[in-house]
# Entry
Amino acid sequence: MQVFPASVPPAPTRALLVDSDRDSLQMYTEYLQRAAFEVFEAEDGREALAKAISRRPGIIVTETQLPGIDGFHLCELLRADLFTRATPIIVVTADAYPPDLVRAERAGADVVLTKPCLPEQLLEAIRGCLKKSAELRARATAVRLDAGRQIARAGVQLERSRRLRKLAQGSAGCPPGGKAEGQS
# Structure
C-alpha cells in the first residue's frame, strides 16, 4: 500500500461543463480551474455525452439549450447509463420558466440554477452536490459491507443447520445407547 504525506493535495475533481455559449463556458471553466477543478468542455449534447462516458467526471454542469441533444435529454441519457447515473448533474439555464425548471429536475438534474448565475453560486452548488454524493457513496459502502457480513453469517448458520440435520438423520435409526439393533 502506498502512503502519501499529508502535504500532497488530493487529485482535482473532474468537471464537465456543457454550454453552447462560448462566453459562459469560458467564464465557468476559468473559475473552476482556479478552484482546483480539472475541467472538460463540450458545446453540444452529443459531445457532452461522449465525454461524460469516456472521461468519467465527478460532476456535470449543463445548459438546457444545446444543439443536437438538448440538456433535458442529456440528463435523461446520463441517468440511464450505468457509468454516469450516479454522477451529480447541475443545470445552469436561461430557461427560467417554472415548467422548464421542473422538467430539468424530472430529467435528472440534482440542482437547477438560472442564468445569470455567478461563478461563486455555481461553485457553491458544485461543492454541495459533491458533498452529498460522497455521503451517499459512504452510506452505500456501509450498506454493502453490512449486507456482506449478514450473508456470511447466514452461510455459517446454514452450514451448521445442514450438519445438524445430517447428524440427526444418521442417528435416527440408533437406540439411545448409540448402536443400531443387531450390533454388538
